[in-house]
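Handover notes (outgoing to incoming on-call)

Open items:
1. Chromosome segregation protein SMC: sequence verified, structure written out, both below. Nothing else pending on this one.
2. Nothing else urgent.
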Amino acid sequence: MLTRLEVQGFKNLLDVDVEFGPFTCIAGANGMGKSNIFDAIEFLSYLATDSLADAAQRVRSTAGGKGGDPRDLFWDGYREHEHRIRIAAEMIVPAEVEDELGERARPVATNLRYEVLLGYESSRGDHAPGRLHLLREDLRQIPDARSRLVFPAAPAFLDTVLIDDNQERVFLSTTTNGGGSERFINVHDHRNRVEKSRPASRMARTVLSTMITADDPTVLAARNEMRSWRRLALEPSALRTPDGITGSESLATNGRHLPATLYRVAHPPEWSAEPDRVYARVAGRLSDLSGVAVEDLEVEFDEARELFTLFLRERGGLRLPARALSEGTLRFLALCVLLEDAEFTGLICMEEPENGIHPANLPAMVQLVRDLAIDPSDTPGDDNPFRQVIVNTHSPGVVQLCDPADLLLADVRLKAAPGGGAARALSLLPYRQSWRARRGGPTFSMADIVAYLSEPPQARLRLPSGLTA
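Chromosome segregation protein SMC structure tokens:
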């Protein structure tokens, strides 16, 4: 779970410092750069697995693939000045990890702070783009974890997710050699002693991304946690695709493998499995949408073609494949399936979940997205998976349906720019009476979001005279 994010110099995020809880809705007008928050989170996730170059290529808006320029990631990246990106993330990591060889271990701390500083180095050629280089990388335990977490949570929840012995352990650090300019990324042992050092100038990737065994369980836990941060962009073509028997059984970020995922969830290996109950819960939740009259649903396996296909039966008896549903209904169905999948954990970022949803169905969609997030008033488990959800929206309907404490208001404000002067950059403001508000820090009041809470000008919300019901 990502509990705090600090970003400096990334796209239009000149200086952002924000707290997150289990569920967060970022609200603001189009074009403010709300999606850049998701880009920063996604970039951190890529840095945990990929090289610096590949991580830069995978972030949205860098030419959509190979050939993008890493300067796209920097604030004012094409002007001649020193380029720096600093991103720090405070997180709660799993209390047990498993490496790629199946070895399990327990981290010595679960409340961690990871920080990375990246620079830009110009190419020696005239036309080739430059490259990112690693300037600093740190991973530390956050002492006094309970007081650092500010979102409301039950003691039973905190007892389960926190290993808090109030130590100040260091797992990764950065030093320079005797006052020189050469930087070294250090890996520490369980006694905080430097176990090995690597010159930062030669690193093509973060040290965190190389820690893939359970020999360093706390670093591995941070890596695995960051890997689970993903942007969910459900595409109708992917949602409509049947699944073969050899494909994945987990829903992809674009919506692929929906039938196989539901089949796995409904047919676990335990002998006591009752698939009809799972199908009934998904059908019942789907029926929350007005205009969708679902009697039941199931995943059918075609042995001849070796395909899984999701079918629905309407109350009138008509049986339809799920691919016949509208785009908005398909997205809602995919989220219903995720709600049942206890194996789907981590951070989910969603852009404008209201897209394709009729205004009458907004309450059902907002409640479904909210229910995907873990309930911090209860202990985590199969009935309360450790999931976190962040959405962004410009919809007044979504804002009106959210608790103000769950809202962050996107605004563009003047901030100090690198090299002097001021520039307009994204700010995220918490509600002034919420747990996110900091003493002396900027906040928003209900008056600041009156545009989201009032009727639009010249709206016709009443029947004209002369018309009867």
